[in-house]
Design goal:
With 153 residues, the protein is α+β, with helices and mostly antiparallel strands. The protein folds into 2 domains: 96 residues, PH-domain like (Roll); 51 residues. The chain is 42% helix and 33% strand. The protein has a 5-stranded antiparallel β-sheet, with no helix packed on it. Helix 1 packs antiparallel against helix 2. InterPro entries: DUF2244_TM.
């Protein structure tokens, strides 16, 4: 989990995103190696009289491909929180879908996580936004405190 924040002329910004261990190019390369190796083993076994190994190799390649697609869709998920001119704007990207919330800072409640895996809840009126899902527990608590201090100041 990567957490950055910037402050310029009364504007505060926090960027919360996943800390992915593979770049997109490395992900494709790893997928290609796994699929090629599985296909080579399946073809070798089929050539030597065990055609069912190739069938299971195909199932394995389909499962690996599905796992890599799911990983890739969510590798770029993030939360961006911007406090500027009395408005807290939260932009969330999940699987390529973008949602944006504008919350008035004067009515905003910041609820720190009560349990280990709880997110930070930002609530203003009937709108509640959960952020910080990718942060560790201590980092979520520290971010909740930072947000409270920024809203108070």
């Amino acid at each position: 989990m990567k957490r950055d924040w910037q402050s310029t002329m009364g504007r505060r910004e926090w960027l919360l995103k996943r800390n992915c261990s593979l770049t997109p190019r490395q992900t494709v390369a790893a997928w290609a190696v796994l699929v090629a190796l599985s296909l080579a083993i399946g073809l070798f076994c089929a050539w030597h009289g065990a055609p069912y190994v190739l069938v299971f190799s195909g199932l394995e390649m389909a499962a690996v491909t599905a796992a890599f697609v799911i990983y890739s869709r969510h590798a770029t998920d993030f939360d961006r929180i911007v406090l500027d001119s009395g408005t807290l704007t939260v932009e969330q990207v999940r699987g390529g879908r973008v949602q944006q919330y504008c919350l008035p800072a004067t009515w905003l409640r910041v609820t720190a996580p009560a349990r280990r895996r709880d997110p930070i809840r930002l609530a203003a009126g009937a709108v509640t936004v959960e952020v910080g899902l990718y942060l560790l527990e201590g980092e979520r608590r520290a971010l909740a405190l930072e947000l409270r201090q920024a809203l108070a100041g």
